[in-house]
## 1
Amino acid sequence: MTVAALDVSTFAFTEAAPAKVNLYLHVTGRRADGYHLLDSLVVFAGAGDVLHYQPGPEPLNLQITGRFGRVLDAAATGADNLVLRAAHALQGLRAGQAQGGTLVLEKKLPVASGIGGGSADAAAALRLLDRAWNVQASRTDLLALAQTLGADVPVCLLSQTMRMEGIGENLTPAAHLPECGMVLVNCGQAVSTPEVFRRRDGAFLPRAALPESWADIADVVAFLKQQGNSLEDAACAVCPPVGHVLADIGGQEGCLLARMSGSGATCFGLFATPQAARQAADRLEDVHPAWWVWGGGLV
Ligand SMILES: C[C@@](CO)(OP(=O)(O)O)[C@H](O)COP(=O)(O)OP(=O)(O)OC[C@H]1O[C@@H](n2ccc(N)nc2=O)[C@H](O)[C@@H]1O
Ligand SMILES: Nc1ncnc2c1ncn2[C@@H]1O[C@H](COP(=O)(O)OP(=O)(O)O)[C@@H](O)[C@H]1O
């Protein structure tokens, strides 16, 4: 249900759900069940959905607003929504903790776009409701719950720079990036993750030799240029506009690196400063008003 009338500024609890960005993503192998093993450096952008919660006597319900709320309505409504699935999973962790109230999800991130919007929403719901319901679940319990909700939910629960391996369950802290800017661009075409994995070909890539610290953003970019996104070619085949998006980001003044995130179609550009990224985003938005474009800093 998309509702515009609720005044979320009066809601007691708010939680950000930042976009996940895979700075590099190597498919390193394949499990017996067909899932692909990954090695990825994951960061979180200042862009994101926002989740609000007001406890109340009514049964727990979710309303969705925002630019992409309507898209999500068609794709995942009611109890299937990752926010409600996360809420119910958390209730299951502590019998007797069930509470009612209204959740409002401001859906600002494009759906099925490689930046983990649904995973970020689920993770935000776990953080928010753990606090609101005073569940006080341990980090281990929350991470285990997160894993049952999706491969990217554990990293989104932490929402900090991490190296992600396995299919998302192996997380190790990674050095924070030096101050830099990021542009995110999505052409508006949803991309199917299973199809992109199915179309991927080529050799498995090795695990990257990730440094323990960065001197500056040039150091980060030099490292990232030695890596790649193993799913980029497949995503370009499924969704040819990805190639144009990459060229347009890469052609922006000050762009240090342009690459696709996750299984696409969202692509990112790295810049020296958040201001340079915002300026590039403004220019891209002028030329492509139908695209979703964001520019700013990292979390
Ligand atoms: C590629 C990544 C990288 O962060 O990001 P997104 O593109 O989703 O943002 C994730 O690993 C996405 O993981 P997840 O969110 O679980 O993918 P799902 O949509 O549930 O997976 C759909 C299907 O893709 C294939 N799949 C997915 C993940 C994986 N490591 N190997 C796979 O082979 C499987 O066929 C799976 O059934
Ligand atoms: N709250 C939610 N936000 C986004 N997608 C959701 C949500 N709940 C369920 N979904 C479903 O999860 C799928 C993956 O969406 P999303 O996380 O945006 O993809 P990606 O990780 O590729 O960016 C979508 O097709 C959508 O149907």
Note: The domain at 8-173 is CATH 3.30.230.10 (Ribosomal Protein S5; domain 2).
## 2
Amino acid sequence: MVTVLKLGGSVVTEKDRPETLDDDTLASLSAAIAAADVEDLVVVHGGGSFGHHHAAERGVSSTEGIRDVDGVMAVHGAMTTLNRFVLSRLHAEDVPALPVHPFSAAARDAEGELSLMTDQVATMLDEGFVPVLHGDGVVHAGEGVTVLSGDEIVAALGDALDADRVGLCSTVPGVLDGDDEVIPRIDAFDEVADVLGVSDATDVTGGMAAKVRELLALGSPAYVFGPDDVDAFLAGEEPGTRIG
Ligand SMILES: Nc1ncnc2c1ncn2[C@@H]1O[C@H](COP(=O)(O)OP(=O)(O)OP(=O)(O)O)[C@@H](O)[C@H]1O
Ligand SMILES: C=C(C)CCOP(=O)(O)O
């Protein structure tokens, strides 16, 4: 039974301060992951103030590409730096986490369709490791390099690995309605389009609206919840908003 958990960049970093980790939250999420000891767990993390800051500065998004190698390396380099921090906090809790850098394992075609290699992820799981992927840059036919969000990676992994459970831990306790109440379940984009917005912080990949779109396209249900509910999700409960 494969579980995919995304740690939102807005959770593990201080999204308003360039390249600043939220170390306390990252440490407590790492402890929750270690305590849950879930079999076949894949972790994905977002960009937060590492990836999004550089992507916004260089003018690259999920659809607008760049060809300047310095810019590409600034975005990719910031994400590998954040990935090293995430790995080190997981290692501190004895989680057998290993890095997978999507930049070298993915491509988009001219229609923007993503292909992501997942054999290495599946083999890591078979060998008892916890693969840790992250939002990154991706080569994109006709565009140079665009941004690949952790949410797209979650959706691609969910399908390729036939994941049984998919969870996105963000700063919010779920998808919120106009009164800031958690919406328990979303089955279609149109039901909630009015309340879905972009991120409060610098974000080049579309915030909550993009997340809901990606998750609705998945074959299995997914959950959006806040940091306090990670243990509940890993224990098999259904916290926050169920999508799909
Ligand atoms: N209806 C909504 N319900 C909840 N959050 C919403 C809604 N509309 C917009 N948002 C915004 O979406 C944000 C979550 O998206 P964001 O992309 O910042 O999260 P993340 O995945 O944790 O971060 P990252 O993209 O860096 O990985 C919330 O912090 C909130 O500002
Ligand atoms: C900005 C970069 C490079 C990654 C974005 O990933 P996300 O935070 O999951 O949307």
Note: Residues 3-243 form a domain with the Carbamate kinase fold (CATH 3.40.1160.10).
